[in-house]
Write a structure and sequence with these properties.
The structure is a homotetramer. The first copy, chain A, is mostly helical. The first copy, chain A, has ten helices and no strands. Chain A is 75% helix and 0% strand. Chain A binds a DNA duplex through α2 and α3.
Chain lengths: 212, 212, 212, 212
DNA sequence: TATGAATGAGAATTCATTCAT
DNA sequence: GATGAATGAATTCTCATTCAT
């Protein structure tokens, strides 16, 4: 996976403005349909300036990917670990899980434009998928596995299935909720994110089957 | 919702070939990055021929949308109803649900290229989202609601939550499985779809929480 | 001048329909902007049929030119001669001239769509100009010269200037009236063609200068 | 009439070169038959550069129209007024008229390529006709009306007909002379413009009829 | 460093003409 | 003879990228 070089993230102010503008424009139109001219306008720089900081338009995408990975890797994974390690004593694991997922949901909600860009490109490009897997999914899965182990020991999570399976369900349920909120809010007339999360959490934990 | 005119689906052979080639190319590169020249090459027609059947490149997309909606609406929703109505006597509902979801999974798996095109465009265009909602989601939700009622009466599905919530979880779990299979198969080294389905079905039904 | 071969004007019915449709479409949009598809639609034939009768689109124009020349040469020039020869006895020349010009005006008015096509093309192509000159202008000028001679003898027309000069003024005055009628009728709110002709005839004959 | 926005005529050098090349090419081939590629070659710029200055090919035409109207409006109408106002004392009106028309003839002769483009388009498009009428014809007619009033008072021009009629004859006689010069010079073997003008002026003033 | 005018390769689209039926 | 689907060269227009200032 050579697409990402995470070193040297000393971002010039204009570089950052260009990245932000690109996230906005890519997110609204998709990578191909976006033009460097519109990005420049949004960033408040000349079109030529973009190419001082990014050799090609493709490199802007790479820049976004790097930033996303950085941000998500930091907030979504690192902080998660801290939470798990810190919250042993005073709170029970069930509450911790709930809080954890709720925080993740808020996070994803807030970086949705960025996520949309990454997801769309990941749909079409293997190298982007690899980067996402290596830098986000694999790490998150590792953390979750640790967490799952502890949860399973305490009898909160199932241990008759691999953690990957549980993780997948978590991601699936969270993803579809976000998607519904972001893309079909008008059609579904959903409740606020808080109460939607409660229901999702319920189904995620206990399934759709009627209990005996 | 004016994007779709489902009438007149008497598809000329070349028109069909162009649509198929478009699905392939759009699916590989996305709508904007795909070129009519490449579509023509894939369809084995002259570039000009495309524009005999579709006024603009955008219209090809519309054609795909119409076909997908038709196909999905027919196979995914209509056949589902039949299944439900026919399978009352000889099979229990739990088995029916399993079969039903498994069939849906296979279907989505098979039309994934088409689905990928639609999903990407839906991400960026409200009118596509509306079409997808009206012609697929809303219908499917209706059918599921009927099914849920029966399932709930029989004590198979939960009735303490709205059917929408259960439906969302089903979609979420199925979607993430497909995505994993189609996009990260190399990374995850998944088992075959059959056994992955079994696990997903388990988690979907009973949740990730440990039972008391 | 090889553009025209006036022989063989045995027009097939469809050929005639194609020519008529072409006059309509060329006249509305100009030669280049007109499409053979639209001509075909207007003529009520298949597009391929056009190319049975005319090797190229350019040839349709040639066909129109031939027809125009034929028609104008016949009606505008030949009949004019007859009029002159027949009207010696019973009418004075002044009345004859008036009638003559009035008839020409009506004729040009009626074939305006055809004329518009020819004029536009003549503006851009030397060969068309040559054809128009040779087959229409030169002939008309010849006839007028004869007529002028007789008129001059009778003291009706000036003989201190070459007939070409008088002829030019006639054409100029008639042309500008037609143009005004056909192109700026909304802006000028002209009277009917009859009374406009009367004024034009007055100015043409006696000039714009105040008589002593 | 929205086709024209006369503001902002600060023409960039390349823009001017593109307009000049367009006048040349449009004038030679007509708008539809002209290609942007040929315009670019003539202007000595890349084809893409054209579209920096003019959004569409149609907009180039609009640019020409604006320039023509400006030029003609300025030179043909404004200067005319000055001439009339200044020449009261030292020259008689008859001489003034002659000079005036002769200058107009020279002007039209010099902008003939531009005029040819405008005329052709005016033949087919109402909006162009309206622009020409409003910005050129109407203004010129106003000026002439003033001039006619003074001329009539001095007994130089007829006052038994509306000035529009006289104006029409002037335009007709001038137009046909220009047309003859520009389009049929080879065929007619005309004298130089000066002496042709003399004859035209004679016929225009005194008509084609023999005086008693 | 920043600019934005200029570029030109490449994209979508048009349309006269051909040809199998 | 007539058709109209198919063609592909030509056309308008776009836009990432370069470079002189």
């Amino acid at each position: 996976m050579e697409i990402i070089d995470l070193s040297g993230l000393n971002l010039h102010e204009k570089e950052q403005r260009i990245l932000e503008a690109s996230i906005k424009v890519f997110s609204e139109k998709g990578f191909s349909a976006a033009t460097t001219s519109e990005i420049a306008k949004n960033a408040g720089v000349a079109e030529g300036t973009i190419f001082r900081y990014f050799k090609t338009k493709k490199d802007i995408l790479r820049g976004i990917l790097i930033q996303t990975i950085n941000l998500v890797g930091e907030k979504l994974v690192i902080e998660q670990v801290e939470k798990i390690l810190l919250d042993n004593a005073d709170k029970d694991l069930h509450t911790t899980l709930k809080e954890l997922l709720y925080d993740r949901l808020k996070l994803v909600d807030s970086i949705f434009p960025m996520a949309r860009v990454i997801i769309t490109e990941a749909l079409f490009h293997e190298d982007v998928r690899e980067a996402v897997f290596e830098h986000i999914i694999a790490k998150a899965l590792n953390v979750f596995s640790l967490f799952h182990q502890r949860m399973a020991e305490k009898g909160v999570l199932r241990n008759d299935l691999e953690p990957e399976i549980l993780f997948r369900s978590i991601i699936g349920n969270m993803a579809i909720l976000i998607a519904q909120k972001k893309m079909f809010n008008d059609q579904f007339k959903l409740a606020d994110l808080d109460s939607e999360f409660e229901k999702m959490f319920d189904v995620l934990l206990y399934g759709i089957a009627k209990r005996d």
